[in-house]
What we know:
Layout: H1 2-76, H2 78-83, E1 90-96, E2 100-109, E3 117-125, E4 128-136
Antiparallel strand pairs: 1-2, 2-3, 3-4
Amino acid sequence: MKRAKNRRRRGAAASGSRGASYVAVLVLVTALSATALAFVNRVGLQTGSAHQEWEQTQADYLAHAAINHAMWRLLHDPVFVATADPNKYTMHDYNFHNVLGGRYGYMVRPHTDHTFATIAAIGIFGDCIAERRHVICIDD
């Protein structure tokens, strides 16, 4: 009879130990899940930030391309110099293998005997816009 009582006591003690282990594992899993969710959230924010920075860089490159395009036209296209409208942007689409697309434009005030040529350029890529200004001296 004593043996049966001892077995019951050990079974009850083992059951309490298993319950405590279950609670400890549950707390540990909850803590790990919270840490993983915080990590995933931070990675998502970093990815979005990196994508925004990449788009801004592309828009900046397009604005520089607009300045170069306008300078080339000022130096090599006499028809453009005579017809340039200093109040209107000349816009161009830019597609790289029909995958990456953006727009750039420039507004030019041609040089005179008393003023330098000025270029206002804009680059647009995704939701980002970059603006640049450039002043050049053109010797005739």
